[in-house]
Design a protein that fits this description.
Low-confidence stretches: none
Strand order of the largest sheet: 1-2-3-4-5
Number of strands: 5
Oligomer: single chain
Distance between the termini: 28 Å
Helix content: 10-25%
Mean pLDDT: 85
Strand content: 25-35%
Largest sheet: 5 strands, antiparallel
Length: 138
């Protein structure tokens, strides 16, 4: 997937793909197929144009995941179940692919537990001052 579009971010490197693959292997205990895709994103809120960004896509346990490369060393991510059920990590972008992927997996796992009614065992006193409302809906 090479491109001559100077505004398009560079493709994921083999090292970046391998890193995400290792993180998924560790999370799920098995190899997970990662697909190369493209996503059209608005990179500048002041503009209406979209930029085609290289994307790593996988699905596991009824959830779909996307990590988009918006520039060299800069990433955005989300997971979704349906077109109307899309979630992010609460962070607009990352400069570390490992942190981006780990946060995405953690937030999705938390959402999965919350949806299943699994509690952490924490009481209201333990959570006093913790305003975490769950993953942000996109």
């Amino acid at each position: 997937m090479s491109t001559s579009d100077p505004g398009r971010p560079t493709e994921f490197t083999e090292a970046e793909r391998d890193l995400v693959g290792r993180l998924l292997q560790r999370r799920y205990g098995k190899p997970v197929a990662i697909e190369l895709a493209d996503a059209e994103l608005s990179l500048d809120p002041a503009r209406t144009d979209l930029t085609t960004c290289p994307t790593l896509y996988w699905n596991e346990r009824r959830a779909h995941f996307a990590v988009c490369k918006i520039a060299t060393g800069r990433y955005r991510c989300q997971f979704f179940y349906t077109d109307s059920e899309q979630y992010g990590t609460g962070r607009e972008e990352y400069d570390d692919l490992e942190r981006c992927t780990l946060d995405l997996l953690r937030v999705q796992a938390d959402h999965e537990k919350q949806s299943a009614g699994v509690s952490s065992g924490a009481t209201a006193a333990d959570l006093d001052g913790d305003d975490y409302p769950g993953p942000p809906m996109l």
